[in-house]
Amino acid sequence: MSTFQDTDVRRVPEAGSRRPVLVVDDDPLQRGEIVEFLERQGIDVIAEENGFAAFHQIKNSAPCVVVMDMKMPGLDGIHVSRLVQNLERQPKPKVILMSGYPDYVYKAHQEDANVFAVIEKPVPLRALLRFITEALAQADPDNKSRAADAPTP
Predict the structure, then answer these.
(1) 134 neighbors 10 (Cβ within 8 angstroms)
(2) For residues 30-50, average pLDDT
(3) Dihedral over Cα of 89, 34, 150, 108: its sign
(4) What DSSP assignment string belongs to the chain?
(5) pTM above 0.85, yes or no
(6) What span, in angstroms and rounded, lies between the C-alpha atoms of 141 and 149?
(7) Among candidates 102, 50, 38, 98, which has minimal Cα distance to 74?
(8) ∠ CA 39-85-30, rounded to 5°
(9) Please, which pLDDT band fits residue 148 given cuts at 50, 70 and 90?
(10) Which tens digits make up the pLDDT trace of 70-109?
(11) Strands ordered across the beta sheet of 45-48
């Protein structure tokens, strides 16, 4: 089994030089922890607490990557990811879905949610960073990048 090393962190674009990452979670502690960690990595972040607000942000601020909880009141993460896929605007953000409920993770896989990744919570922040930096690289491969500092969460 491989372990995560500081040298495994990919390069992320310079802060302010690209579209932001949108973090969506109805749990304020979970959302805050992810936002704070990503900001320490120099990543521009927008945070929302529900699917309705997330979809509004996706349409208006065009985030590069969306990290979203699946089980939220109102619009859940799977529904929002379907709405994103139906947007005519290009490029569409890379969506990473997360859930602490195995049945939601299974549902996302079964329904072919057409997302970049589906992750079961709790997810170590460094592992989440690997998914995000890979999604950023695929979403904006020509962007100028810098080495990401990866302090221990």
Answers:
(1) yes
(2) 97
(3) negative
(4) -----GGGPPPEEPTTSSPPEEEE-S-HHHHHHHHHHHHHTT--EEEESSHHHHHHHHHHH--SEEEEES--SSS-HHHHHHHHHT--SSSPPEEEEEES-HHHHHHHHHTT---SEEEESS--HHHHHHHHHHHHHHHSTTS-EEPPP----
(5) no
(6) 20
(7) 50
(8) 30
(9) very low
(10) 999 989 999 999 999 999 888 899 999 999 999 989 888 8
(11) 45-48, 21-24, 65-69, 94-99, 117-120
**Around 62, how many Cα atoms within 13 Å sit in the side-chain half-sphere?**
9
Q: Two tokens at 94? A: 């890379």
Amino acid 69 reads D
Two tokens, residue 50: 């529900």
**What tens digit of pLDDT does each residue of 111-122 get?**
877 899 999 999
- Quote the radius of gyration of the chain (alpha carbons, Å): 14
State the residue for tokens 């979670």.
25
> Cα–Cα distance between 33 and 51 in angstroms, integer?
19
Place of tokens 């879905």: 97
